[in-house]
């Protein structure tokens, strides 16, 4: 198959040869590896890559992926990282508009009619920068003679992949993991991996989030070996009975084999101290369903994030252990009862924040230390919930929320703000995805990727369909997907308030942004159909958060008011060197000769970009502490 640059212009082409999305489990070769969480089946490709930058598609190094291509003039670039923060291209912060507005007239493909595919929009775009990445690797001995895939945790915004000159695949959706099978193209000794990253494709219309606009391989990359018998996917259901005393555990496994699907599966469930509670064995098959009950179950919640220990062991036909898959399991129930969201039979109160992934040096290429620091801030200030605005986060963050009892609103990578709001007015004449059939599969794919990756995390209470993308048949289809795939969780979407025709088909909760307390109270006084959640409120620009008590008072007064998520957790700003003083300073939008820009609008966090708390955090700590 040959890679086509025209895919950049087509919303119906968003994944080529990608492996299906699946659970975020990790396989290990031995029990000792699983205990230490150091897998010999994984080979990191993070580090220094060869790199060439092009200002537009017409100037990119065509054929750079060929093993014998002369790359002697290529630079070096760190992965993970953003191209712009390495000194290439334009750093730009925008809130609701698209980067090309005021420069190029563009309408999303098919939004002006089924006969308007808008060919060439991005494939010939004079401002669509391109990064050409090359990495040489030799397989670790533990990966030799096995099936091997590659995982990209995050690439903005459209990527083409080659190995040893062979085209492997194509992916969009910047914040969801993209996985490809490399097995047919691997060779002994040196392998040449090449990735071509375009800053813009039709995915740009779906990723109009309030943030700095970057590009590149900004999350980790790794090779993963699949043993002779391998867990491809697993789905855990860990609910509780109506008395909240017995846990109902169900496990669905999907297995693959290098040759014949033979061998055995051993499954065990233990408490948090490792005391075994249940074991089961079965012959290996393509799909397995196992179940048990747990008496006197220890429920998971914010104050007591109790996790059971699941372990799956696969053995080949000779009895040799070939793969170990551990996973932590939390038993809990989230439901709507009498029009109130309840967790484990108790009314849920959300003391939440919206959290962009951000680091003042590395942008969205956040580290484990960043995440650990944020989790400590949550605990120190009575924050019990987080909305992953407005995209899936790094996998490690979900595991941290599991272990720390942080309730998650897990949001899709979707925002199309600039297609329906112009100059502050609601004007959806060319909104996407809307009800356009040519865009529906792309957004459903994003929903499926979000669900499959994070479906086993007890911290995830809600699936969020995206942010500020109006409403139509396509978002209604996303809501239906989530309810069909996962009836154990609730859905969220605020944008249906812009198109109330879909109110009974989208979102299990009434969700608003920045509604004043009096408007919320009026809603609650009129026997509403859905509980109320502020998906964004307070908007912490400058030294704000004043008047927070007016919202907190509603919690005690109206059971159907269930709290909300402050906008937002941390400033988006970057460390730079001041041209006059030579001192390091934090710079916001507009400080990088980025025009147009929304300037300091990115400075609306409870923390400065260097993670120094602002005075507003004291008020959050005080008021959230009243309902912790």
Question: Given the helix and strand composition, which structural class is it?
Answer: alpha+beta
Low-confidence residue ranges: none
Q: Estimate the strand proportion.
A: 25-35%
Helix content: 10-25%
- Rg estimate, integer Å: 24 Å
Mean pLDDT: 97
Oligomer description: single chain
Which outline best applies? globular
- The number of helical runs is 9
**Terminal CA distance:** 56 Å
Strands, count: 37
Order of the strands making up the biggest sheet: 32-31-28-27-26-35-34-33
The biggest sheet amounts to:
8 strands, parallel
Catalytic activity: Hydrolysis of terminal non-reducing beta-D-galactose residues in beta-D-galactosides
Domain Glycoside hydrolase family 2 catalytic: 334-625
Enzyme class: hydrolase
EC number: 3.2.1.23
Which helices and strands appear, and what pairs or packs with what?
Layout: E1 15-16, H1 31-36, E2 42-44, E3 47-54, E4 75-79, E5 93-94, E6 130-137, E7 147-152, E8 155-156, E9 158-163, E10 166-171, E11 178-181, E12 191-198, H2 203-206, E13 211-212, E14 216-217, E15 221-226, E16 229-240, E17 246-257, E18 264-270, E19 276-283, E20 287-295, E21 308-315, E22 321-329, E23 334-337, E24 340-343, E25 346-347, E26 350-354, H3 368-380, E27 385-387, H4 395-404, E28 407-411, E29 421-422, E30 425-426, H5 437-454, E31 460-464, H6 473-485, E32 490-492, E33 510-513, H7 517-524, E34 532-537, H8 548-557, E35 561-566, E36 574-577, E37 584-587, H9 616-624
Parallel strand pairs: 26-27, 26-35, 27-28, 28-31, 31-32, 33-34, 34-35
Antiparallel strand pairs: 1-10, 2-15, 3-4, 3-6, 5-13, 6-12, 7-11, 7-15, 8-14, 9-10, 9-12, 16-17, 17-20, 18-19, 18-21, 21-22, 23-24, 24-25, 29-30, 36-37
């Amino acid at each position: 198959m040959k890679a086509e640059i025209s895919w950049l212009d087509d919303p119906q082409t968003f994944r080529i040869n990608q492996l299906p999305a699946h659970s975020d489990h990790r396989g290990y070769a031995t029990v000792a590896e699983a205990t230490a969480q150091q897998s010999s089946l994984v080979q990191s490709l993070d580090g220094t890559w060869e790199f060439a930058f092009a200002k537009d598609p017409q100037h990119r190094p065509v054929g750079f992926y060929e093993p014998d291509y002369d790359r002697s003039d290529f630079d070096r670039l760190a992965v993970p990282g953003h191209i712009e923060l390495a000194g290439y291209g334009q750093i730009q912060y925008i809130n609701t508009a698209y980067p090309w507005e005021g420069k190029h007239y563009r309408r999303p493909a098919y939004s002006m009619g089924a006969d308007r595919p808008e060919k060439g929009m991005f494939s010939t775009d004079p401002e669509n920068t391109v990064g050409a990445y090359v990495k040489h690797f030799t397989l670790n001995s533990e990966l030799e003679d096995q099936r091997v895939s590659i995982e990209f945790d995050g690439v903005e915004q459209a990527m083409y992949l080659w190995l040893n000159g062979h085209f492997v695949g194509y992916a969009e959706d910047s914040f969801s993991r993209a996985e490809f099978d490399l097995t047919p193209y691997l060779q002994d000794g040196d392998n040449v991996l090449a990735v071509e990253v375009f800053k813009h494709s039709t995915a740009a219309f779906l990723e109009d989030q309030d943030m700095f606009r970057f590009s590149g391989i900004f999350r980790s990359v790794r090779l993963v070996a699949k043993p002779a018998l391998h867990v491809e996917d697993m789905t855990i259901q860990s609910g509780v009975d109506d008395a909240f005393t017995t846990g109902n555990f169900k496990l669905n496994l999907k297995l693959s084999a290098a040759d014949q699907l033979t061998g055995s599966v051993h499954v065990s469930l233990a408490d948090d101290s490792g005391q075994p509670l249940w074991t089961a064995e079965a012959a290996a098959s393509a799909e397995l369903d196992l179940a048990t009950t747990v008496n006197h179950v220890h429920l998971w919640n914010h104050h007591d994030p109790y996790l059971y220990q699941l372990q799956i062991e696969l053995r080949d036909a000779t009895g040799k252990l070939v793969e170990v898959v551990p996973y932590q399991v939390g038993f809990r129930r989230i439901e709507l009862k009498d029009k109130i969201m309840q967790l484990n039979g108790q009314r849920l109160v959300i003391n939440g924040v919206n959290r962009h992934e951000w680091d003042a040096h590395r942008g969205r290429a956040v580290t484990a230390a960043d995440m650990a620091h944020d989790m400590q801030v949550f605990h120190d200030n009575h924050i019990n919930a987080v909305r992953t605005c407005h995209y899936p986060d790094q996998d490690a963050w979900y595991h941290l929320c599991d272990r720390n009892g942080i309730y998650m609103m897990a949001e899709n990578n979707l925002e199309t703000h600039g297609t329906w709001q112009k100059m502050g007015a609601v004007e959806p004449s060319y909104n996407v995805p809307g009800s356009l059939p040519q865009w529906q599969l792309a957004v459903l794919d994003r929903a499926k990727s979000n669900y499959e990756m994070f479906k086993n995390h007890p911290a995830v209470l809600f699936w969020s369909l995206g942010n500020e993308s109006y409403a139509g048949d396509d978002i209604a289809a996303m809501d239906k997907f989530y309810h069909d795939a996962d009836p154990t969780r609730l859905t969220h979407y605020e944008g249906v308030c812009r198109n109330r025709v879909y109110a009974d088909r989208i979102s299990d909760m009434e969700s608003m942004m920045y509604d004043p307390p009096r408007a919320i109270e009026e809603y609650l006084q009129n026997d509403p159909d859905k509980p109320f959640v502020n998906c964004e409120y307070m908007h912490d620009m400058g030294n704000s958060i004043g008047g927070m008590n007016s919202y907190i008072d509603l919690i005690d007064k109206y059971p159907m008011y269930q709290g909300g998520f402050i906008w937002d957790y941390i400033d988006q700003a970057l460390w730079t060197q001041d041209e006059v003083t030579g001192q390091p300073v934090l710079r916001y939008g507009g400080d990088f000769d980025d025009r147009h820009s929304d300037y300091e609008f990115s400075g609306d966090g409870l923390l400065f970009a260097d993670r120094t708390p602002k005075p507003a955090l004291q008020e959050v700590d005080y008021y959230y502490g009243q309902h912790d």
